Amino acid sequence: MTDTSQTLNVLFLCTHNSARSILAEALLNHMGQGRFRAYSAGSSPRGNQQPNPLGLEVLQHAGVPIDGLRSKSWDEFAGPQAPRMDLVITVCDNAKGEMCPIWPGHPVTAHWGYADPSEGDAPQDVKLEAFRQTMLQMRRRLALLVNLPADKLRPSVLQSTARELSIP
């Protein structure tokens, strides 16, 4: 991002790109007011991976559009035709520890870890509540990001800004 009036491109990463990264993408696009454009991807999405239906349900219930959300590989964002990212955020501990591609433009990176709301064999209503709680946690952190003054989003300070927001 060379100018603070430009849109900041943010890529959220998780292993399968079915839950946390999808939630973050949808939320930031909804909250970003044109200052941010969010994307999501996974390091190893399963074949025919789809966004988790419970995640889509909590987003819809919160009034967040889900049109166009899909699970995809991070390879989609590593090539020369990909949108240039300004910020790449891992949202799961597994993706944090993986060797990421070399992103075009060498974006700033940060880790904002969230527990996996889809993990385990809990009943559907318990998992739905876990998704809701994860979405609320993300919304609080993303609200801090979108309300930052432009000087905190300049390339020279974006790294420290993004990492400061990782502290709950």
Keywords:
35% helix, alpha/beta, 168 residues, 4 strands, Rossmann fold
Short description:
The protein is an alpha/beta fold.
Description:
It is a single chain. This protein has one domain (8-152): 3-Layer(aba) Sandwich (Rossmann fold). Helices cover 35% and strands 13% of the residues. It has five helices and four strands, in the order βαβαβαβαα. Strands 2-1-3-4 form a four-stranded parallel β-sheet. Helix 3 links the parallel strand 3 (87-90) and strand 4 (108-111).
Layout: helices, strands, pairs:
Elements: E1 8-14, H1 20-31, E2 36-42, H2 53-61, E3 87-90, H3 93-96, E4 108-111, H4 124-146, H5 155-164
Parallel strand pairs: 1-2, 1-3, 3-4
Distance between the ends: 26 Å
Number of helices: 5
Number of strands: 4
β-sheet strand percentage: 5-15%
Number of domains: 1
The residue-averaged pLDDT reads: 90
Could you estimate the helical fraction of the residues in percent? 25-40%
Task: Indicate the overall shape.
Answer: globular
InterPro entries: Ptyr_pPase, Ptyr_pPase_sf
Organism: Diaphorobacter ruginosibacter
Domain Phosphotyrosine protein phosphatase I: 8-148
Keywords: Arsenical resistance
